[in-house]
Amino acid sequence: MTAPLLEVTDLGVSFPHAGGRHRVVAGISYALAPGRTLGVVGESGCGKSVTALALVGLVPAPGHVEGSIRFDGRELVGQSHAAWRALRGADIAMVFQEPMTALNPVMTIGRQIAESLVLHRDGMGWREGEREAVGLLEAVGINAPRDRARAYPHQLSGGMRQRAVIAMALACGPRLLVADEPTTALDVTIQAQILDLLQDLQDRTGMAIQFISHNLAVVSAIAHDIIVMYAGRIVERAPVEALFAHPLHPYTQGLIATLPDPDHRVARLPVIPGSVPDLDTGGGCRFADRCPRADAACRIAEPALVEMAPGHLVACFKAGA
User: Rounded to whole angstroms, how far apart are CA atoms 313 and 306?
Assistant: First the structure.
């Protein structure tokens, strides 16, 4: 069995709040091997993006990260800013959810992609880096890549900016790619091209991918394993086939039920009533107020994540009921 490239153990992220600390992620543990893709799904506010920021050392101050993040055996929690800068972009890269926050508005697209190459590849100059940037833009499906490389972010469409961010993340051939909603702004044709590109790179290089999305259909097309997050915790983790064939947590079942079925037209898709609660709600299952099967016991104790089948873990007292 291949040793994990990434090992996350009891990861927590918190921020100061009202004289104490407000937890947005708590007790997250999982592993990701080279050449594998881990899908992370859940509603907005479930902690997916904050977990991703912790993996690349970008949790904003005064956020506090605890637990362990080991990359190729090296502990990352507590590393210096200099150590993170050397690692980020070279070995670990991230595709951000909103491209305009990731792109410098006063630098051309080609220059921004080349900057990562010049920084992390010994002996590479700006001219060579900008030539490679053109090839990277072409690889992510941008037409007239030479012209786009000379453009500024505001001169590109939202979809082009997103593809430029993906090209920037892939520039140095990272061993781990953390992709936060990387295809949300793209039409379905470009979306499929990007997924094919990521899978092709993974096949050729053995890159590991953590793919974050609210779109279960997209995740099912690229992931080997899936984590379902709710209110800052993992509520279910399983191989993709097992999760879709036999979802065990009521929240996972609700998410899958909301997917449109082209073979069965309905007037209105099902919804999960309510919204994600405050993450410091105290004892009990965090999904209890929205769960159709919750009883008094669910509101007293928080269920642990336990293995119900090989590789299939769930945190629910009524799993699969």
Answer: 5
